[in-house]
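Appendix B. Chain record.
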Amino acid sequence: MRRSASRLPWTLIVFLAMASVPWIGSRYDAFLAGQITIDALFAVSLNLLLGTTGLVSFGHVAYFGVGAYVYGILMKAYGVPFVFAFPAAGLGAALFAAISGYFCVRLIKLYFAMLTLAFSQIVWAIAYKWNAVTGGDQGLPEIPYPDLGWMSAIPGCGDLSTGARFYLLTLVLVAVALAILHRIVRSPFGRMLTTIRDNPERAAFIGLNVRAYQLAAFIVAGGFAGLAGALYGIFSRGVFADYVFWAKSAEVIIMAILGGMDYFWGPPVGAAALVWLNQQVTDYTQYWPFVLGSLLLILLFVFPGGLVGGVVAGVSRLQRIIAGRDA
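Structure tokens predicted for this chain:
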């Protein structure tokens, strides 16, 4: 009996392919893979609000930036070990998400989105002006790598550079974070969030505390965005105010929509597509915003359900054609 392609362990296959990059790819390939990996976690954390809960946040970058700054300050100023600084970044971002989310979830639709943008701009202003803590416009350069000497004991890792070792560590951490987020989305809590997304009035009528669920989703999404920010601070060897500028929120929204926000694996696909398109376009022209914007418009019109939605629709149509022939 032939095994269906949909039953193949695609997640494991993609993970193993990504893990092989330090050995079979160039340093540039590893750089792109690292950026895609971190952006994938950032995009999925946003999609917990956007696709699962139905909350459009224009300021999700605030929690990404808070996580990056918490980690950078702890590591650079106080020498806190990675094993403590990394979860602290997530907790710090989650705490700020709890404070800002308490006010944001009291508003709906456009007002909610604009309030999230306002909070992100407040974070950007603090990061840009508080020189004594954040470094101001100079940021926090030269964020150190965590101690990765222990990876020498892993077969095949002894000859890898520190950057390649950190990429592998990032891949594992992001895989664990995505597994947790996937479990959350598929849990009863996640189903309650989709119920609220589809019809918040009916959800409130049957007894759900809509604001409490939305706030919980806001906190979880903010915490995981903070973890992505911490990893990005190490990956780019510095934390700067640009990380919390509103344009970064627009970028991650594009990732979620481009990949398909109705699917859990849509945002990672969107992250990979956007990073790859960005690199390819900038190699050929200095007018990359115009070209990239045009390409995104075409892709979104051709695949209104995102890239993953287009693939799913194509596979379903092919299966119907095959079934029709067999009948």
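Further analysis of this model is presented in Appendix C.
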